[in-house]
Amino acid sequence: AFARGPLLFFWVSFGAAKGLGCLCIPGGAMNSVARLHAIIENRVDILCCTPTYAMHLGSVAKAENIDLRQSAVRAIVVGGEPGASIPATRARIEELWPGARLYDHHGMTEIGPVSYECPQRRGVLHIIEPEFIAEVIDSDSGQPVAAGQSGELILTNLGRLGSPLLRYKTGDIVRPAAETPCACGSYELALEGGILGRADDMVQIRGVNVYPGAIEQIVRAFPQVVEYQVEVSQQDALNEMAIRIEPGADAGSSLADEIQKALKLNLSLRIPVETVAPG
User: Fold this and answer.
1) DSSP-assigned letters across all residues of 25-55
2) Signed CA dihedral, 202, 205, 209, 210: sign only
3) What is the pTM of this model?
């Protein structure tokens, strides 16, 4: 479900699936309602898109009274954003798409497809090691981190003639698992929890380090939220954060207060939450 532009995730997915002999149905030039009807009418069983678009399609289906239990979709492969590594976002997408399992797929235009989700352990990504030399380092010291510790993923690609990269700093924060065979039998490097965050996305709010993924985990735990927006501004040389939420039809009047309390409990920060009109 992509426009047929230069986005690498679409072309890699389309080309790989075609190479496997799958029937590939591109959804470019369709609106969301038309895409949903195409998915149901063609008995599509695997959907590839971004996490936010999977959620958007689910919300549109609800608004249009399209029952996604009628769809044959059994797997949703998402990339382009870290949403599938966030448990609350994963749960929300799987709730909107009954019977489908979410799979994370992570990569970069600069270096190519990097990892695939373990078929047996939810939220664990395996590096495609035949294609990469992977390291996880402490960004400050440059030294390797121990198994179970978080660090920045560094990659050297082995087969990309058009874009060779040596020790490329991806900016992805990951946690390498111990070097034992995974439950699925793979010896490839496993990343516990998938992509934990981005080194360049962290903002400091009143002395507290806040990653977008931490906000998403809290907000997406409230299924009444259709969409949200985070605004970071600077006041007197200090960063301040505010959140706007779009409520669903079933949301109560106390939703903003409940989210504000959850943010305070989890982040020890008072972050104002404002409700905007649906749509």
Assistant:
1) ---TT--HHHHHHHHHHTT--EEEE-HHHHH
2) negative
3) 0.79
